Amino acid sequence: MKIAFHLFVHFSLLVFVSCYGGNGYDPLENVLKIQRSRRSISNHENNEDVTVQNSYTPVYVGPQDGLKEADKISELPGQPAGTNFDQYSGYVTVDPNHGRALFYYLAESPVNSSTNPLVLWLNGGPGCSSFGNGAMMELGPFRVNPDNTTLSPNKYAWNNVANVLFLESPAGVGFSYSNTSTDYQTGDIQTAKDSYTFLVNWLERFPEYKTRDFYITGESYAGHYIPQLAQLILQNNEITNQTVINLKGIAIGNAYIDDETANTGMFDYFWSHAIISDEIHEGIVSNCNFTEGGTKTVECDEYEGQAKAAKSNIFFYDIYAPLCSSSSNGTPSISEFDPCTENYIYSYLNTPAVQQSLHAKPIQWESCSGLIGLFWKDAPFTVLPVIQDLMASGISVWLYSGDTDGRVPVTSSRYAINKLQTSVKTPWYPWMYQGEVGGYVVGYQNLTFVTIRGAGHFVPSYQPARGLAFFSSFLEGKLP
Ligand SMILES: *[C@@H]1O[C@H](CO)[C@@H](O)[C@H](O)[C@H]1NC(C)=O
Ligand SMILES: *[C@@H]1O[C@H](CO)[C@@H](O)[C@H](O)[C@H]1NC(C)=O
Ligand SMILES: *[C@@H]1O[C@H](CO)[C@@H](O)[C@H](O)[C@H]1NC(C)=O
Ligand SMILES: *[C@@H]1O[C@H](CO)[C@@H](O)[C@H](O)[C@H]1NC(C)=O
Ligand SMILES: *[C@@H]1O[C@H](CO)[C@@H](O)[C@H](O)[C@H]1NC(C)=O
Ligand SMILES: *[C@@H]1O[C@H](CO)[C@@H](O)[C@H](O)[C@H]1NC(C)=O
């Protein structure tokens, strides 16, 4: 295994310089295939629960003195004049013996930074960078221009209403790394533990945030990370003699939270959005058993293959969006998302001067690491039981969904919510933004579900204004 792993490390660097949707690249699909085949070999082997611990062992806390000042970004290359908020980035060591360190980027609020909440943002994949995708493409304060070297302000950035902390997680993703290469064989459990250790250390580095209201947000496969981390925080808060983290709520976008509904909802969405034929849809419905332990027949594989072929020429993270092609000449427009943005980010973040300004190690930065996904060790079939625990804990639990995403579509979220068996408190209604329907919202007991109309998988990229409106409501704790 070890030799194969090292060979793979080598090989992967050549092959997996990939980004979301580029040439049909789909990080989630790769991992799911692997998980599925593992489950059919050894069912339930990996069902260790991240929070099942009988006794609390304090997490590693390293010396943090002077590191906050060292992490302050004086200026990002190409940054627009008049930038009026503080930015920090750097590494937090989570395991000194292995030499494992996680990279973060903090964008503070221009106004009310000292009272605004602290919000952690996590991208999924597994293997995708929260800095390159989350901050630079979605909700961060800047967008990279088509010249690959200058930045434009994003006027709908989420740091307008919160101090936003982007974490590259786990090690091996983005700028995060480990000096022990076997650490790149990781999974849900280690990811939650490392993220928790990161937070405890980061709060020593930035003690002014220790008692601040804290929220966790993110999307896609962070549908696993967020509930698992939230549960670990709540559990440790009860027993720790270290920092108690003031967790107030979570919001997960286009959330990958349950394997069965992720599949059924996706194929139903393909059918209802005129991507696949009646025959393919019926073939999938009658031949595929997506429940836990359900077997995949040859017929099912055949129909799934046909469905994948049918959607292969569209960007299924935002089904009506244009593709990035040599003929599309990019415009750095916020309202009309430039489909080539990933290329500009890739080039910008691999510029030595940019990596230096970020205090990052000089590395080949990738949007998503295929290696991390390929060796993913553990992922429960569903995290709905964890979400149920969180719903009963009293923190606010929101799911939101861009309704033009085909990857983890709104149908999947609705089917998953049905499985949670909660009851409607505020019936479904359209929420308005600037005289238009921004999306729809339904309030359940202990759970809120919000759609963002006309947004794909990366909600703040495609509908920045509606995305910020939804996010502000979430922080205020009231329905939009
Ligand atoms: C990883 O190794 C390098 C080179 O020895 C060292 O400078 C760095 O501090 C190590 N990283 C961590 C997190 O210990
Ligand atoms: C800053 O906080 C004050 C007091 O809570 C509030 O009135 C004001 O609207 C806030 N400004 C912004 C830009 O959030
Ligand atoms: C926390 O508890 C551990 C034992 O569980 C102990 O070793 C450590 O010194 C304690 N830390 C503080 C700050 O009290
Ligand atoms: C799907 O598989 C599960 C688990 O093996 C089984 O209990 C269920 O009956 C199957 N459903 C159908 C419709 O065959
Ligand atoms: C920007 O970077 C991409 C590669 O990510 C490259 O294809 C493109 O030509 C670059 N654009 C400019 C203006 O240099
Ligand atoms: C909602 O939370 C309360 C306690 O906070 C709990 O008793 C109840 O079972 C929860 N309901 C659901 C559907 O999660």
From TrEMBL:
<comment type="similarity">
    <text>Belongs to the peptidase S10 family.</text>
</comment>
<keyword id="KW-1015">Disulfide bond</keyword>
<dbReference type="GO" id="GO:0005576">
    <property type="term" value="C:extracellular region"/>
</dbReference>
<feature type="signal peptide">
    <location>
        <begin position="1"/>
        <end position="24"/>
    </location>
</feature>
<dbReference type="GO" id="GO:0006508">
    <property type="term" value="P:proteolysis"/>
</dbReference>
<keyword id="KW-0378">Hydrolase</keyword>
<keyword id="KW-0645">Protease</keyword>
<dbReference type="GO" id="GO:0004185">
    <property type="term" value="F:serine-type carboxypeptidase activity"/>
</dbReference>
<protein>
    <recommendedName>
        <fullName>Carboxypeptidase</fullName>
        <ecNumber>3.4.16.-</ecNumber>
    </recommendedName>
</protein>
<dbReference type="InterPro" id="IPR001563">
    <property type="entry name" value="Peptidase_S10"/>
</dbReference>
<dbReference type="InterPro" id="IPR033124">
    <property type="entry name" value="Ser_caboxypep_his_AS"/>
</dbReference>
<dbReference type="InterPro" id="IPR029058">
    <property type="entry name" value="AB_hydrolase_fold"/>
</dbReference>
<keyword id="KW-0964">Secreted</keyword>
<keyword id="KW-0325">Glycoprotein</keyword>
<keyword id="KW-0732">Signal</keyword>
<dbReference type="Pfam" id="PF00450">
    <property type="entry name" value="Peptidase_S10"/>
</dbReference>
<keyword id="KW-0121">Carboxypeptidase</keyword>
<dbReference type="InterPro" id="IPR018202">
    <property type="entry name" value="Ser_caboxypep_ser_AS"/>
</dbReference>
